[in-house]
Write a structure and sequence with these properties.
The protein has 64 residues and is mostly helical. The chain contains three helices and no strands. It has a single domain, classed as Orthogonal Bundle (Helix Hairpins), CATH 1.10.287.
Length: 64
């Protein structure tokens, strides 16, 4: 999800998206250890999207 699309989400939706991404990253790490990762680029994309979500949450926290 692009940063512009994330801006439209509310605070609750951002925190929900954060938890989904953290769970996805955990599952990817488990798959890596087992040696059967379906899409290795998914890990990088999830990590980057999580960074976007956390950045936006921090910006909103500082502005209020």
């Amino acid at each position: 999800m692009k940063f512009i699309n994330l801006k439209d989400l509310g605070s609750a939706e951002l925190s929900q998206r954060e938890s989904v991404l953290r769970r996805e990253m955990f599952n990817i790490r488990i798959q890596k250890k087992a040696g059967n990762v379906e899409n290795p680029l998914r890990a990088r994309n999830a990590r980057r999207e999580l960074a976007r979500v956390l950045t936006l949450a921090m910006q909103r926290k500082k502005s209020s």
